[in-house]
Amino acid sequence: MTTTDETTRNGVDTATLFATLDAVKAAPEAAKFQFRSSTEWVTGTHSRGTIHGFFGVGEERTHERSFTFDADHPAVLVGQDNGPTPVEFVLHALASCLTAGLANIAAARKVRLTEVRCTVAGDIDLNGILGLNPAVRNGYQDITVRFTVRGDAPADKLRELVEQSRERSAVYDVITGRVPVSIEVTTD
Amino acid sequence: MTTTDETTRNGVDTATLFATLDAVKAAPEAAKFQFRSSTEWVTGTHSRGTIHGFFGVGEERTHERSFTFDADHPAVLVGQDNGPTPVEFVLHALASCLTAGLANIAAARKVRLTEVRCTVAGDIDLNGILGLNPAVRNGYQDITVRFTVRGDAPADKLRELVEQSRERSAVYDVITGRVPVSIEVTTD
């Protein structure tokens, strides 16, 4: 095996991962990031969002390419189904965050994963957003995540990896905690 | 003008919108939806999520097509930049939710919009998810939404539309409120 093979596990370059951790320990300011998305209304409930630039490790950066995603409502919700609903993107964000964390944590703990699947389901009562029942919240009432994880470790160890991923997940924290959101409007 | 022209505003068929509201008023159970995303780990921080089926108005449904989105970390976060980070999808979800709501509300209130742009920025200190500072949360510390809205109404009215969209936004509620999330793990 080459050096790369020895330090790369689950597709994660653990040498770089640990070096990044050491670099942030030495210079905590490097960990201050700002992520952004820019959305343009198309028509009706259809909009198009672009993700490209971000700030991190002390400077403005860009993804290697610009990512563009349409969002819409399905016909049953008076849209044209040009993309997922906004609330579905939240579920995708949660699943991908927990999955990425799991792969990183498994790599750091020397567990080789062979399969990870994650399904997320969110229950929502649209009487909230439709303004028909003030006792119903606008957002999800609950979200259930179901993981299937396989790798070269006992079941208990694999469950610990998922638990640690939950413990350190940014999107899990956004959904289960409260994030202050401010809104500014320009009309001219 | 045809009947369609009279009831369609901002690309929103307001007749259908109001009919949907009446239908839900008559049968509140119809508003119980479940949305889902299914994610498969690819390698490292790279995963692929699929959004297709959902439940609503009393039955299982599917989007007209299956939507697939890759998520990853950029190189500076030890990934390969095959997609946005999970936390960026959260910002996209917020912008698209507020924008869709704005178009619907404007249509219902007989305001014709000519332009809507929405940029969302989220500040996050990765000392949280890296486990380097227990005082730092994992998720965004704050999120700022900036709207540019133009249409055939005075500035105050346009601002009211944005405020009402915030008031009825599912994703805004998920981010600013707390949603319970349960996680189940299968390992065999």
DSSP strand count of chain A? 8
Q: Biggest sheet of chain A, in brief? A: 3 strands, antiparallel
Question: H/E order of the elements of chain A?
Answer: HEEHEEEHEEHHE
Oligomeric composition of the shown chains: homodimer
Low-pLDDT parts of chain A are none
- Global structural class of chain A: alpha+beta
Strand order of the largest sheet of chain A: 3-4-5
The coarse silhouette of chain A is globular
Strand composition percent of chain A: 35-45%
Mean pLDDT of chain A: 95
Supply the number of helical segments of chain A.
Answer: 5
Distance between the termini of chain A: 63 Å
Most extensive interface, residues per chain? A-B, 130 and 130 residues
| Share of helix of chain A, binned | 25-40%
Task: Output the radius of gyration of chain A.
Answer: 20 Å
Which helices and strands appear, and what pairs or packs with what?
2 copies of one chain form a homodimer.
Chain A: H1 3-7, E1 8-9, E2 12-13, H2 14-26, E3 32-43, E4 46-56, E5 59-71, H3 86-108, E6 113-125, E7 142-151, H4 155-167, H5 170-176, E8 181-186
Antiparallel strand pairs in A: 1-2, 3-4, 4-5, 6-7
